[in-house]
C-alpha cells in the first residue's frame, strides 16, 4: 500500500528522479520518458471516461489500473533481480495482452470491415479514444527505444501495441459501431 503524507519532497529539484529500484536518473532519461508517457495516456483516458458509460467505462477503468501497473513495470529496470526483490515488482504479463486481444475480437464482431482509413473524430468519446490511441503508440515507441539499451519487459511492449489497437476499435464502437466513422477521402481538397 502506498502512503503519501507529503506531495512535494524537493528531491527532484536538481533534475533527477528515483526509479522503482531506488536508482536516481535524470528526469529526461528514456525510461522516465516511457513511463511518463503511460501516465500521460492514463490522464487522457480519464478525460475519455467522462464520455463513457456501462461496459465501456468498466473496461476503460480496468485499463487505467493496468496503465499504473505498466508504469510501475517500466520504472523498475533490473528484471534480473525480480526474484531477489524484497517486494516482487509489478510486471505486465501475457494474460493481460490476451485479454485485450479477446476484447478487440468481441468488439470487431459488430463492425463492418474498413474500406478506407478513418479520421480521428466522430463522437466525443471516439475522438478522445483516438487521442489515447496515438499516445499509446508514442509510449510503445519510447518503450521499444528504451529496450534497445536497457531491460524492458516484452509483455509491456506487447500490451502497449494491443492497447492502441483496442482504442482504435473502441473508437469505432463509440461511433455507432463504425456507422459514424469519419472516412478519409484521399486528395479531397486538391
From TrEMBL:
* GO CC annotation: cytoplasm
**Under which EC number(s) is this enzyme classified?**
2.5.1.17
Family, similarity comment:
Belongs to the Cob(I)alamin adenosyltransferase family.
Name of the protein in its database record: Corrinoid adenosyltransferase
Q: Where is the Cobalamin adenosyltransferase-like domain?
A: 7-174
Q: Looking at its record, which EC class is this enzyme?
A: transferase
UniProt-listed InterPro entries: CblAdoTrfase-like, CblAdoTrfase-like_sf, PduO-typ
Is Transferase found in the keyword set? yes
Q: Which UniProt keywords apply?
A: ATP-binding, Cobalamin biosynthesis, Cytoplasm, Nucleotide-binding, Transferase
Question: Which Pfam families does this chain map to?
Answer: Cob_adeno_trans
Major localization listed first in the record, in broad terms:
cytoplasm
SUPFAM superfamilies noted in UniProt: Cobalamin adenosyltransferase-like (SSF89028)
Any Gene Ontology biological process: cobalamin biosynthetic process
Amino acid at each position: 500500500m502506498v502512503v503519501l503524507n507529503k506531495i512535494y519532497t524537493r528531491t527532484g529539484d536538481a533534475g533527477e528522479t528515483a526509479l522503482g529500484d531506488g536508482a536516481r536518473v535524470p528526469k529526461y532519461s528514456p525510461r522516465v520518458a516511457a513511463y511518463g508517457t503511460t501516465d500521460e495516456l492514463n490522464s487522457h483516458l480519464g478525460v475519455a471516461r467522462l464520455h463513457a458509460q456501462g461496459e465501456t467505462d468498466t473496461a476503460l477503468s480496468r485499463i487505467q489500473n493496468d496503465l499504473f501497473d505498466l508504469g510501475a513495470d517500466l520504472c523498475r529496470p533490473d528484471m534480473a533481480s525480480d526474484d531477489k526483490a524484497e517486494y516482487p515488482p509489478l510486471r505486465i504479463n501475457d494474460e493481460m495482452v490476451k485479454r485485450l486481444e479477446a476484447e478487440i475480437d468481441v468488439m470487431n464482431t459488430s463492425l463492418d470491415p474498413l474500406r478506407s482509413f478513418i479520421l480521428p473524430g466522430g463522437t466525443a468519446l471516439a475522438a478522445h479514444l483516438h487521442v489515447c490511441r496515438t499516445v499509446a503508440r508514442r509510449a510503445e515507441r519510447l518503450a521499444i527505444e528504451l529496450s534497445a539499451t536497457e531491460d524492458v519487459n516484452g509483455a509491456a511492449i506487447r500490451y502497449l501495441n494491443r492497447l492502441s489497437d483496442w482504442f482504435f476499435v473502441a473508437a469505432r464502437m463509440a461511433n455507432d459501431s463504425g456507422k459514424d466513422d469519419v472516412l478519409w477521402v484521399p486528395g479531397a481538397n486538391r
